[in-house]
Amino acid sequence: MRNTTRYPVHGSNSLWQVYKTVSFWKIMKSFIIISIARITPWLPLKNWLYRTFLRMEVGKRTAIALMVMMDTMFPEKIHIGDNTIIGYNTTILAHEYLLDEYRLGDVYIGSNVMIGANTLILPGVTIGDNAIVGAGSVVTKDVPPNTFVAGNPAKHIKNL
Predict the structure, then answer these.
(1) Cys staple from 111: which of 12, 45, 62, 82, with CB 3.0 to 4.6 Å?
(2) Which region among 18-22, 42-46, 70-74, 136-140 has the lowest average model confidence (pLDDT)?
(3) C-alpha to C-alpha distance for 43 and 134, rounded to whole angstroms
(4) pLDDT, tens only, 63-111
(5) Could you tell me how far CA 116 lies from the centroid of its own chain?
(6) Please, what's the largest Cα pairwise distance for the chain?
């Protein structure tokens, strides 16, 4: 089970009510910074943008590839350890808006983790140290340290 907090809504769907849950200006700022970072090839600048303007935790020597899409509404809920690689076009979400509720959950990605390209990481997930997530995976639950997972949904392949 993912570690998310549920917030019920009434009336229209939760996404229609998004500006009751997060400021329009916060989303705009996040979207602009994330858009710049997505196309920035210089890793130290990219990590600085995330840390400085979005209050994300990004570890030392962490490499976030081109086109990685961070959560635009709650980027401060993303925590990434040291010496981790996040592959091209990966999406990391810390929120999900549903018909009658929205959910928020911190995402923790450990140190020395390798996340393959085009992976989707859902809110409330923890990926342990030294784990490997195969390209194209959908991470719907916690990944223990020192394991290799892959697939949709990501399943245990082997211990490392």
Answers:
(1) 82
(2) 18-22
(3) 22
(4) 999 999 999 999 999 999 999 999 999 999 999 999 999 999 999 999 9
(5) 13
(6) 48
Helices (H), 22-136: 24-38, 43-54
Does residue 1 surpass a pLDDT of 90? no
Catalytic positions, written as ranges:
95
Give the three-state DSSP class for 73.
coil
Tell me the pairing of strands 57-58 and 155-159: unpaired
Domain boundaries, the chain: 5-155
Spatial separation of the C-alpha atoms in residues 80 and 159, rounded to whole Å: 21
pTM here is 0.97
CATH class of 5-155: mainly beta
Tell me the two tokens of residue 72.
């635009």
Beta-bridge partners for 61: none
Is 63 within 8 Å of 43 (Cβ atoms)?
yes
Residue range 116-145: mean pLDDT, rounded: 98
Contact between residue 121 and residue 93 where contact means Cβ atoms under 8 Å apart: yes
Residue found by looking up tokens 């400021």 in the block: 23
